[in-house]
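Give me the fold.
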Amino acid sequence: MNRVLSTHLFVNHRLSIAWLNRVMQAGIPAVEIFCARQHLDYRNRNQITELGHWFDDADLKLHSMHSPMYTDEIWGRSGPHSIITITEPVKSQRLAMVDEIKRALEIAETIPFRYLIQHIGVSGEEYTERKVDAAFSALEELSLFARQRGVEILLENIPNELSTAERLRDFIEVTHLDLGFVFDVGHANIGEGVDAAFEIMQERIRSTHVHDNNGKEDKHLFPLAAEGGTVDWKRTMSLLRSRPKQYPLLLELREVEGMEHPLDRVSEVFDRLESLRED
């Protein structure tokens, strides 16, 4: 499986050429960029242009972009108005959020990438038919906008009632939107379980988010390296290997305060995961 690293690992730092050089020098061939404005400001053409010139000459590839979740630079702490969600039932407000996501998609005109990772709703959000209708309207528009730029939208299983593996499958069946999935191992571990979620999602999985947690909190721990992880990694890797050419092994990790040489640790995690075999 191809190796990809999400820049979520250093999302609280401005994404610069220096950071990307470190990733490339660590032998990681591709990245997913987390589109948070304190990290990658999708409104800042100077930052996008600078990174675009670098990618033109670099061996590192941009596999995917994670859709923005907030309009501010402090993880939505400026207030509810800063949260971007495609389940917003008020059309005028939803269209403003769709426009924010389109700004992120426009990055593909400068730095081509294959996938945009999109959430339906926010963490803990309850299910209603009205929210499903809102998400369908938003995704219908976004999918067309993305395809015109060579990008496919992938829906992610996240911890809410709208985005369980089963609900995502039902959403595709009801709306007939031809969208793939990103299989988030950590979120499945919090929810219905890795085996159950993979069984439902497997046909449409086009990318992954690989990280660990305690089964309750979305901690984005380093697999096989952090205390408190509960994912069965031998079993999980066996599942992921069942479709080896369908998606990459993509680590989406959280920065650990005081950790020296985190990219060396990332390479070790890749090596250890790929060496695992079920007994």
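The radius of gyration is 18 Å.
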